[in-house]
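Task: encode each sequence below as structure tokens.

Item 1
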Amino acid sequence: MKPAIPNLRSFDEAMAKEFYVGFLEFQVDWEHRHAEGMPLYMQISRGDCLIHLTEHYGDCSPAGQIRIETPELDDYLHTLRAKDHPNCKPGPIVKQAWGTREITLTDPFGNRLTLYCE
């Protein structure tokens, strides 16, 4: 098996792209609609991390959570904090009892992305 690709629910293409591409610095790999005016299904990536964002009802529930290993977590958070996003203010990194350092960000659709490193 290879790594799973999580699906996250989205409701607005512009908001999704602003958050994931503009703020988190993912890239859009591809987009798909069954026909013009239909819901968007797209793949985004950053490094080896792949995520599918879907506007399709029934693909997945809003307010999901995924964990993303982020080896350069401190540098990445420094970059995000410097952007001063109006709806996402990354707080402090939390040292967990199991040994990881983590921070959880919430996207505009209620999905949580926990970024972590050892």
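Item 2
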Amino acid sequence: MYPSLYDPTVTQTALERIERLGPETRADWGKMSVDQMLAHLNVAYDMETGALPVSNNFLMRFILKTFVKKAVVGPKPYPKNGRTAPAFVISDRRNFEQEKAKLMNHMNRFRRNGAAHYEGKENVSFGKLTASEWNVLYYKHLDHHLQQFGV
């Protein structure tokens, strides 16, 4: 399936890909600038940690679990130019270095916490996820956007 960000070697390889980005790196597709892409990736981590509070009512959570969860944590890669949930849309410019550092810190925290920490952990949109599903959620999204920016 997807490489495990719980593995220090996999995390290090992903961090090295991020390090190859620069403030002027252009996307091969899509509309985001590189700083917006990094901020976009940080949204999921900020939701997980509570830094970005999310309040999904019962109906919205049912819809997300029933119709969206499989696309997010399943094996199929994201399509180019796919739809983005409103909370993940970054329309303003961001500080490249700050967003990059924040993402790298999130990734290192995820690895340090380890799979046991994430097994059965509640996700604000999809309910309880397995450690493997948390990994796919983060790795698949990261890889999709790093490919978008050619790294």
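Check on item 2: The helical segments are 8-19, 34-49, 58-73, 96-118, 131-148. Residues 36 and 90 are 6 Å apart (CA to CA).
End of task.
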